[in-house]
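Chain X:
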Amino acid sequence: MAKKLIVSLLPGATEMVAAMGGAAQLVGVSHECDWPEAVASLPRVTVTPIDGRQPSAEIHRAVQHAVAEGRSVIGIDAGMLRELQPDVIITQQLCDVCAVADGEAMRLARVMDPPPEVVVLSGSTLAGVWDDMRRVGVAIGLEAEAHAVARKLEADVAAIAARPMTDRPGVVAIEWLEPLFLAGHWVPEMIAAAGGRDLGAAPGSHSTIREWDEVMVLDPALVFVVLCGLDAARGHAELARVTDGRIRDWLDARRVVVLDGNAYTSRPGPRLVEGIRLMAEAISQSVPA
């Protein structure tokens, strides 16, 4: 049986495909796909008018402006997609800002000849992400491999969560700084598996804008800064832009750990487990011996 050709419109899906041994089947990826390194040479099928190098406040304003004008935050290069002629397109319906929404992919697929199968990922919890991985495996002809990878990831999370803990400190996870968003979806589960208690969000909940006063009264022992789509260096840079004295005093009074949100928390894929490991290390250092 010929291997199915894949276009992934979602970085997490690209990492799923690679983890189950399907990297050679990828013929196109999103402009944000950067892992594993082998995908760097693949054609980019998505475009965005948003300059991700801007400060977080400017990025947010640009996104809001695009949405208000009815413009896509991330779009598909239809000509490139037709040229690649994939058998399978992987997209998502979780966030219109982070990746191409499922509707546009569906519309383009319907007019292609032959029309590719569109796999829409929607997992908002860890179990949902692993189920999405299994669905991708079925669609691209790697069902057994996908099940094996998902089982391994589930076992890895369980092993981290089984570590003996003398205390489970209160934690908040900041997904964006200006405006302030607390991370939802699978992040509260990551924190729980790592040994903490997420004080600001519930598993599977949407990431939401919060006021600093709301977050301050939660009084967490540990603050994770895991900015969506930004690495740790950008996280530190954005954190340095917070100049309000009251907020700075509050942050200085507790442990703040900046992680690579782009790699380890924003992408629903296999590297969420590495994110849990990094959180567990930070939490263990915050708990008195």
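Chain Y:
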Amino acid sequence: MITTASHRISRTKLSDPCFIALVTDTYPPEINGVANTVCRFATGLKTRGHRIEIIRPRQRKEIENNDGMIHKQVLGLPLLGYAGLRFGLPMLGYLKTLWKTSRPDAIYVATEGPLGWSAIKAANRYGIPVISGFHTNFHSYSHYYHLKLFQNGVFNYLRYFHNQTQATLVPTASLQHSLSSQDFQRVTVVGRGVDVKLFTPDKRDEGLRRRWGLGPPDTAIIAVGRIAPEKNLSLAISAYRAMAFNRPNIQMIIVGDGPELASMQQNNPDVLFVGAQRGEELARHYASADILLFPSETETFGNVILEAMSSGLAVVAYQYAAAAIHIEHLINGLSPELGNQSSFIRSAIALTHKNIDIESIRRQARLHALAHDWPNVIDSFESIMLDTQREEV
């Protein structure tokens, strides 16, 4: 175990500006929940007047950032199975030199790879408060990649990694309870938000729907996310085909990219694959659909659920993570029992029945999302980053 002296950031009030470093293997324009969340944290802190340094691997097609934050790009390698994503290499010497001359007031480590481990070691070396985020259930992915024998080893590493930090932030109380019961220490909940101005029903585009082969009364089913085994998209496609028996004028659209894209396109010619979408285009795709199918069983949260609800979609998602918090079954979405594939398909089919008021569900979804914009989440994150006292770990 690493022993460090207690340390508190010196400031007189919450609004006093501080220097905060965020260390992450992924950041926009990469598309995933971790990149989106870290960007939101960084932008939110910057808006509140803090000086922000982002340390991340150099991306393949690096773009110049004019966002007013300090970007330090380090060496990285492609992530196995995801050519578009990179993980940072060990950078202990670099970070010690960097932070010795320009010391942050606090450090947030978002990913658990070699770069994140180097950041924790360097922070502990200089007594800088360091907080980590548990964004991804990496240990659960082993089931989908035929690596089940490594699942316990991965989980033990994650526990050791996070227990070297002053606090581990998680998005839900259920995950907090689960990790705490398995000897993760100092686990704290910081939720997730949604940009209700970006993701809005007002972005609905009938021209886009026509390109999907749909008219105003027809139904667009959408799935959004990484096209990879752990996202369980084959279940979404099975549910779509079951729905089509009751509602023939229906089309499924899958938004995203990933290692299974080519094989899924080949095996599902009745499904439209439209690639990864960002920003306004992503918002337009959400709003132009009617129903989101989200069959993943491995999320720590699932930002897609709130984005779809904010866009006015009826969401079908398993009852855990974001869905357990935000979906009230048959009121603002449908939330079948986790892992029950038959129940998931039945819930999807229910949205084609005349006795289900899908328009009311969609309205209630939007109303619920309006109460979960990002500012309150950033307030919580800022408070933890600035107030947490350094403990021995």
